[in-house]
Amino acid sequence: MNTKIWIVDKYVDNLENNPQVVEAARFLQENEVVALPTETVYGLGGNAESDEAVEKIFAAKGRPSDNPLIIHIADKNQINAFVTELPKKAEILMERFWPGPLTIIFKKKDGVLSEKATAGLDTVAVRMPDHPVAIALLKKCGLPIAAPSANSSGKPSPTNAQHVVEDLNGKIAGVLDGGPTGVGVESTVLDCTEEIPIILRPGGITKEQLETVIGEVHLDAALSDEASKPKAPGMKYQHYAPNAPLFLVNGSREFLRRLIEEKQNEGLRVGVLATEESVEYYHGDVTIACGKRSELESVATALYETLRNFNQEKVDIIFSEMFPNTGVGHAIMNRLQKAAGNKIIHE
Ligand code: AMP
Ligand code: MG
User: Mean pLDDT across the chain, nearest whole number?
Assistant: First the structure.
């Protein structure tokens, strides 16, 4: 398949009638799949009402079929078609954080969405992306769009259109290139089917932000305890992994320097994920400043691109600094731990 690349300036007016957006919307209506920019990462969109389109998403990504997709909408009223109840807390959160990186899980009305999109569950995950190109596309096609991250399953999520092309060229109908994404890590997934909502996946909206608006919020036990079964089916898979083994290092800069030297003495090409504050301390073969520790949002923005860069540099092993488990640091650590398959070296 020839994958079309449509370059779109996200700042122009009247995006809904931009010829590239119009063509991409037509592809979606014809049950083809196209990648689109959102404020978190690039998504791979398909008509959520069509088994055919949803099957194409799973096939292109190589995604396990038991891992349900997030349904993207441009207008809050769209959810009434496929959700049975709108809990008060969810309504408050939608008002405050949509459009934005918050996915809410609702009880599902049967018979509207493809069962494959929701992996046969009786709940459905929904969000409204905060990106002008995504919103224009959703409005133009008029459909609920199922969209997981537009990477090959297991790889780091794409934060620009080039990453999508690296993984999915020839496997999808097209890519709307709206420039690099901003937040850099995926949405927070919040289960609002329980009285006290539960974070199933930490992301762009922090626990602290949610609690300011609706009071107590729980964390799925699996986020802190490896033995618990995660409530989000996708959270049990290894994800985001670079090609070389990644180790998180819990210790001083001096300790990390010694680890790097040790591996270099064994003849390995060593990658180091550092920050702007620490990059000068390390002499890895490839040392990358992944944002600024003093601004964790910048670490989230740069994270996946940094992991992909280690692949291009063909390192044999990667060491990464660790980050505080609060605010957006929670999402960063969750992704790093998954990318590392939980390999942590303690000083
Ligand atoms: P991705 O599409 O790659 O951003 O991943 C979406 C995440 O949301 C995965 O971890 C899914 O397992 C999770 N998810 C989607 N729908 C549901 C649902 N109905 N219940 C629980 N988790 C869900
Ligand atoms: Mg994903």
Answer: 96
